[in-house]
Specification:
This protein has nine helices and seven strands. 41% of the residues lie in helices and 17% in strands. The longest helix has 25 residues. α2 runs antiparallel to α9. The chain has a seven-stranded mixed sheet, with helices on both faces. β2, α3 and β3 form a beta-alpha-beta unit.
Length: 242
C-alpha cells in the first residue's frame, strides 16, 4: 500500500516509553495486590530504567540514515512539570483511556518523526536489536506497522509510519487474551503489519518467572538489566509463580 497521507518529517524514528509516576498514580495494582506495593513500585522504577537504557542503546547503535530518538510518555502533567522523569524528553499522555493516550502519543511522534514506536515499562528484557529491527521495518515509504505480541494476549510494542484513526486504538478491548489479535486485524486493513517475537510483560506475579528467565537469556544485557536481574534474585516477592 503506497502512502496517500502527507509526507512525514524526515527525522528518524521516535520511541516513547509509557510510564506512570509513583506517588501520583496507582502503579501495577494487580501486581501490588499479590507482591506488596513496595515491590511493585520498585519494580516499575527499575524496569523503566532498564527499558530506557535499551532505548538509549538503540539511539547510539542506530544507522545514520535511520536515527532513533527516545522519549518518556508520562501519564501525569504534574510529573512533567516537576521533572520526575529526567534523562529523556517528556511527552504528555494526557487524560483518557489507554487507547486514547496511545493515540495522542503516537500522533506526537509522527509530528516529529518518520515513524513512531510505543513501548511500556513492563518488558525490561527487550534489547536494541528488537527495537532497531522494528525501526528498520518502519523506515519505508510503504504504509507499515509493527506489533510485539505478549504471552498474555496483549502486546509489548506498537509502531507505525502512518497516521492511525483514534478509533483503531480505542476500538480494541485491552487486557484481554485477544487484544493483540484484534488490533493486528485492524492494522492489516491500513498497511503491512510485522509481528515481532513474543515476550512476557509483567502484570501479575505469575509473569515474573518468565520475565526473569527472559532477562537471563539476554546475550548482552545492559548494566541496568543486570542490576534488575540481581535485585530480583536477592529480593523476590513471597509469591512468585514459575
Amino acid at each position: 500500500m503506497n502512502r496517500t497521507q502527507p509526507s512525514r518529517p524526515a527525522t528518524g524514528i521516535g520511541v516513547a516509553i509509557f510510564v506512570k509516576t509513583p506517588g501520583r498514580s496507582p502503579i501495577k495494582t494487580r501486581l501490588a495486590a499479590e507482591t506488596g506495593e513496595d515491590f511493585a513500585l520498585s519494580w516499575h522504577r527499575r524496569a523503566a530504567a532498564a527499558v530506557a537504557a535499551v532505548a538509549r542503546d538503540s539511539e547510539q547503535r542506530a544507522p545514520i540514515d535511520t536515527p532513533v530518538r527516545a522519549y518518556w510518555a508520562v501519564a501525569e502533567a504534574a510529573a512533567i512539570e516537576e521533572g520526575d522523569w529526567p534523562g529523556l524528553t517528556n511527552l504528555a499522555q494526557e487524560e483518557g483511556s489507554l487507547g486514547e493516550r496511545m493515540a495522542r502519543v503516537y500522533a506526537q511522534l509522527l509530528d516529529r518523526h518518520r515513524a513512531g514506536i510505543l513501548i511500556g515499562a513492563d518488558t525490561p528484557q527487550i534489547d536494541a536489536d528488537l527495537l532497531l529491527s522494528a525501526a528498520a521495518w518502519l523506515d519505508s515509504e510503504i504504509d507499515r506497522f509493527a506489533i510485539g505480541p505478549a504471552r498474555d494476549g496483549g502486546f509489548w510494542l506498537f509502531g507505525g509510519n502512518r497516521p492511525v484513526p483514534m478509533a483503531v486504538l480505542t476500538g480494541v478491548a485491552y487486557s484481554r487474551a485477544d487484544t493483540e489479535r484484534r488490533l493486528s486485524e485492524k492494522l492489516i486493513e491500513l498497511g503491512a503489519a510485522r509481528r515481532l517475537p513474543v515476550l512476557s510483560d509483567l502484570d501479575i506475579a505469575a509473569d515474573l518467572g518468565t520475565v526473569i528467565d527472559e532477562l537471563a537469556a539476554l546475550d548482552h544485557p545492559l548494566p541496568e538489566q543486570r542490576a534488575l536481574a540481581d535485585w530480583l534474585s536477592h529480593k523476590p516477592p513471597s509469591r512468585i509463580t514459575r
